[in-house]
Amino acid sequence: MILPLLRAALIALVFVGTAHAETTLQTVLKRKELLAGITADSPPSAYLDAQGRQVGYCADVARYLAKRLGVKLTFVPVTAASRIPLLQTGRIDAEIAVTTPQKVRNEVVDFTYSYIWDNGVLLVRQGDSTDIAAYQNGTKTIGATQGDGFIDRWKQSSPQAKFRLFREGSDVVGALRKGDVDAAIVNQNGGVIYTRAGGVAMTAPWTNSPDAIMVREDDSKWLKWLNWSLQRMWTEGTLQKLHVKWFGIEPSFNLGDYGQIQPRVMEIGKTNDPWAPLPDGFLEKLLGPASFELD
Predict the structure, then answer these.
(1) By mean pLDDT, which of 129-133, 154-158, 276-280 is the weakest?
(2) How many structural domains does the chain have?
(3) d(Cα 12, Cα 219) in Å, to the nearest integer?
(4) What angle do CA 228, 107, 159 make, to 5 degrees?
(5) How high is the pLDDT of residue 254?
(6) How far is the C-alpha of 290 from the C-alpha of 293, rounded, in Å?
(7) How large is the average pLDDT for residues 163-179?
(8) Domain range for residue 271?
(9) In a domain, 105, yes or no
(10) Helix orientation angle between 220-236 and 238-247, rounded to the nearest 10 degrees
(11) What CATH code is carried by the domain that includes residue 31?
(12) Cα separation, 96 vs 111, whole angstroms
């Protein structure tokens, strides 16, 4: 009888521990700090400026979310290789960057609604062909960042493709400039900035990429709050204004379930729905050129 009783007691302890485990939302509010994973080389979504300040669309979204939570914001640098381990080990509360939801990732993490839609393009050296078909074969070497969701999409149309993978987007473009790869897969928003620097040309888009905020798996209260917040930003018009600020155009997508905002999303709940008022002047600063001064 002792072993069955011991087994039952252990199961009960596990159940109690699980039942009382803190959600990320509770952890963030108790800690009074949001640890936001973010990339440093994905302009204009998330990157470091010449002074080393974290800027971009994603950074400003994180600033808004932290202010609505009423907590301090801390940016934690992530890469394609480190973002999921950092999230799973609790070293970041969410990755607020440019990660595309897909099945393999969804097996270990969860995603909010997509809050950016970007196109995939190729960068090639100035003077080389910008015909995408010229690179969809097994003779050209394509550069990309490790874990980039565009890689699998490229392989769908070019199964024989040869890849050389790098840790950072800037490393990929550097390899292209040096001739170590024949083309580089990047998002269109970043590609525009790289082409302005000279020496490379950009192809027409060959696919699109919906990106979302990544959170730990099975953390529904945190996920719901983030989705409510993104919808409220959209309803207020703040998300669209940030999109224009950083991308120069109105968003070409809709937000929410099947592109629709949830009814009554602006009603603030009594539990699990913190929504601190924005200080005077916060939105003006956020939408202005020096939003990094809010940190």
Answers:
(1) 154-158
(2) 2
(3) 21
(4) 115
(5) 92
(6) 6
(7) 93
(8) 21-118+209-294
(9) yes
(10) 80
(11) 3.40.190.10
(12) 10
Looking at the fold, whether 178 and 202 belong to one and the same domain comes out as yes
Strand partners, 74: 35
Give yes or no for a cis peptide into 205 (omega within 30° of 0).
no
Q: How many CA within 13 A on the CB side of residue 46? A: 25
DSSP state for residue 257 in the 8-state scheme: B
Q: Which two tokens stand for residue 249?
A: 């155009």
92: Cβ contacts below 8 Å, ≥ 6 apart: 35, 36, 37, 76, 78, 83, 86
User: Residue 2: its pLDDT value, please?
Assistant: 45
HSE-up of residue 65 (Cα within 13 Å, Cβ side): 31
* Three-class secondary structure of residue 89 per DSSP: coil
How does pLDDT run across 231-276, given as a tens digit for each residue? 999 999 999 999 999 988 888 889 998 889 999 999 999 889 999 9
Question: Is there a single domain that holds both residue 89 and residue 218?
Answer: yes
Say whether both 63 and 131 belong to one domain. no
CA atoms of 156 and 210, how far apart (whole Å): 18
What three-state secondary structure class fits 134?
helix
Token readout for 240 is 């669209």
The pTM (predicted TM-score) of the whole model is 0.78
Count Cβ atoms below 10 Å from residue 129 Cβ, excluding itself: 14
Q: What is the pLDDT of residue 7?
A: 52
Sign of CA dihedral 144, 149, 152, 156: negative
Q: Give 233's contacts (C-beta < 8 A, 6+ positions apart).
A: 61, 64, 239
**Distance between CA atoms of residues 75 and 80, nearest Å:** 16
* Backbone angles phi and psi of 90, in degrees to 5: 80, 10
